[in-house]
Design brief:
The chain is mainly alpha-helical and about 300 residues long. About 70% of the residues lie in helices and about 0% in strands. It contains 14 helices and no strands. The radius of gyration is 24 Å and the shape is elongated.
């Protein structure tokens, strides 16, 4: 799950914090980087378990409705949502249960939030269409949860506030982690039952090493990389730049120099996108031009053994 996009985001955040905090202990900072990445994986599991928590809340409401129906001689309420096949499969998932057993907190600790989001769901058109639809199969059960998550959970201010209380990391992580949750819902198959594989913490062990090497190269070679910036722009004036711009370019140069298999164009594009998120409105265009000039300068002087296409 932790891919290079998320790693780049975390390295930008932690490098900026490293300089701002002034502690200058790279071992401590590296541990903080890896911890923050692990918290993103925690959030992935926690958000998947929210589906289970909502489903259990639905069963509590169903039991009350069934008791009332029996007392008053009314038709029995539908069990369709409370016993949704996809949600039950997730509830039985071995990997998710193993994770939740290691946690001190679960969604049953948030009864008021569960009631509120359950009500939000049952009042939605998504829920009403699902309950009225003639299709009653696993695919329909999985699809309704994909729609619910994308529409009612992905952008939910109450959930965001709750997550912010639980972890300082999670509000920054949620947008990208949501995409992994939706990907996981889509790839579930009924035949796998409780053994359905969730996304692993890292896409590969190489990615964990990539995070370490990128962060260390950025910090340990800072003077050298800033010298490259100066060489590429003789009129360089650090005082006119947002400090985040310098940090982003420093990390981008570290990636160019340290990882020969990553094309220069990929590196430039990735950090230009990060500049749009973390720096000033004009930064992306400026960083794009500067990184292109720096890469060409390093290639021409033999310090970067990569190819870069001709300027258009």
């Amino acid at each position: 799950m932790i891919n290079r996009e998320l790693i780049r985001i975390k390295v930008v955040q932690l490098t900026y914090a490293y300089y701002q905090n002034g502690s200058k202990n790279i071992d401590t900072a590296e541990k903080e980087l890896l911890f923050s990445l692990s918290k993103a994986y925690d959030l992935y599991n926690y958000l998947l378990s929210l589906i289970v928590g909502i489903t259990q809340e639905a069963r509590r409401h169903l039991e009350v409705a069934q008791s009332r129906a029996q007392r008053e001689g009314l038709p029995m309420p539908s069990q369709r949502f409370a016993y949704n096949r996809f949600a039950m499969q997730l509830e039985e998932n071995r990997m998710l249960n193993d994770f939740m057993e290691t946690q001190k907190k679960n969604w049953n600790d948030e009864p008021e939030f569960l009631k509120k989001i359950y009500t939000l769901i049952t009042e939605s058109e998504i829920y009403k269409d699902y309950m009225a639809a003639p299709e009653d199969d696993y695919a329909a059960d999985r699809e309704v949860w994909r729609k619910i998550y994308r529409t009612l959970i992905q952008e939910n201010a109450d959930l965001d506030a709750l997550l912010e209380e639980d972890s300082l990391y999670w509000n920054d992580d949620k947008e990208i982690v949501d995409t992994f949750v939706l990907k996981t819902i889509k790839r579930f198959e009924e035949k796998n039952k409780g053994n359905q594989e969730l996304l692993p913490e890292y896409d590969s062990e190489d990615d964990k090493e990539y995070a370490r090497k990128l962060f260390r190269a950025t910090i340990m070679n800072a003077d050298e990389y800033q010298h490259y910036m100066s060489e590429a722009s003789r009129n360089w004036d650090f005082s006119r730049l947002a400090y985040m711009d310098i940090v982003i370019m420093q990390i981008a140069i570290a990636e160019m120099v340290t990882f020969p298999s990553i094309p220069v164009s990929v590196t430039i594009n990735e950090y230009v996108e990060l500049a749009k998120l973390y720096s000033t409105p004009r930064s992306a265009s400026y960083i794009n031009g500067m990184l292109d000039a720096i890469a060409r300068h390093l290639i021409q002087t033999g310090r970067l053994l990569k190819h870069i296409g001709e300027k258009k």
